[in-house]
Amino acid sequence: MTGGYPHADIGLQRPGVSRGLIDVFEHRYLLTLIVRKEVQIRYRGSVLGWLWSYVKPLVQFAVFFVALGVFLRLSNSIDAYPLYLLAGMTVISFFTEAFANGTRSLVDNAPLIKKIYVPREMFPVSSMIVAAINTLPQMIVVGIIAAVLGWQPTALGVAAILLGFVIVAVLSTALGMLFGAINVSFRDAQSFVDIIVMCAVWASPVMYQLSMVRSTLPDWAFTLYLLNPLTPAVELFHYGFWAPLDTSGSDQLPELWLFAGIAVVTSVILLFVGQLVFRRLEGRFAQVL
After folding, report:
1. I need a surface site. Which of 23, 30, 106, 198 has the fewest CB within 10 A?
2. pTM
3. Is residue 99, in this structure, part of any structural domain at all?
4. What is the structure's pLDDT at 59?
5. Coiled-coil annotation: which residues (predicted)?
């Protein structure tokens, strides 16, 4: 007791001051509630419910497989092409869902942001977690298909899959925070994100083999292509699921682990930048929304 007032020696903290992602992890229970709310809202009144998480990716897979695998006959030149395509599309689906929903998350939760203070980073982080929840069953399906085709998992292959998953999780959270903060004041950011999402599937070796890019681009351009964090992430999934079934071995990247490490560093740097921009713009969120 100091000066006759109880508890006056307890340090006070100015309300509404965020410590960024640290607050998100310290309020894990609140994060769980937000994730649960987003999942329930997404499938409220839906007949198929969770099955919708598979309908869109499977329809996209069917369209691309018929167009590329059958009509352009990539199935004849790429071993286990359906598995190659599905593994890569799982990565891209995770990224596009987490990134796009993270960008919209602050605007979509405007009523909550205007009423009470919560660490605002929770909203893009929760969007990433919801996307991850939807992606995990898809990965199980890819694993089952691979096993039917004769795939036998290895410790290094599983590690590659997990590393690719982590890269996409960090990258999509970083970009979701960055563009989500900008989208509060400038809704054009959401349209720009839609363009990025549309191009993402073609900017990494999902539909085509990496060897095709290597043989077409000059060395410096191919290096820039590999510096896209999504490229190593997709290749890590290919390494884990598809490479054991590739009899030629011609499309495997010798520098995979090097560029995977660069992708991790790049994603972490972008997360730091996204946090800085988020903190800079956060004070105006409630007012603008």
Report:
1. 198
2. 0.87
3. yes
4. 82
5. none
